[in-house]
Design a protein that fits this description.
Helix content is 0%, strand content 52%. By secondary structure, it is mainly beta. The protein has one domain. The chain has a two-stranded antiparallel ribbon. It is extended, with a radius of gyration of 16 Å. The chain starts with a strand and ends in a 29-residue tail after the last strand.
Length: 73
């Protein structure tokens, strides 16, 4: 079974990266606004425990850079 979703776009008007948390991610403070753009996502459950990303856009990384297994240190 495939699921189709729309992922609305946003624009960050202010983005301030604050301190690093204990889990390796950073706290952020931001002000954002929505725009009338969106990506169309198609998702399908796989038989194995993995995520596969594909895209027709040449500028989207399709390797582990887009989905790190853990936060960067």
């Amino acid at each position: 079974m495939k699921i189709y979703e729309k992922a609305p776009a946003k624009i960050n008007l202010l983005l301030d990266v604050l301190h690093k948390r204990d889990d390796g991610f950073h706290e952020v403070e931001m002000v954002m606004t929505m725009v009338d753009l969106a990506d169309r996502l198609e998702m399908e459950e796989l038989q194995r425990d993995t995520i596969i990303i594909s895209s027709q856009a040449g500028y989207i990384p399709l390797d582990e850079k887009i989905l790190p297994s853990r936060p960067p240190s």
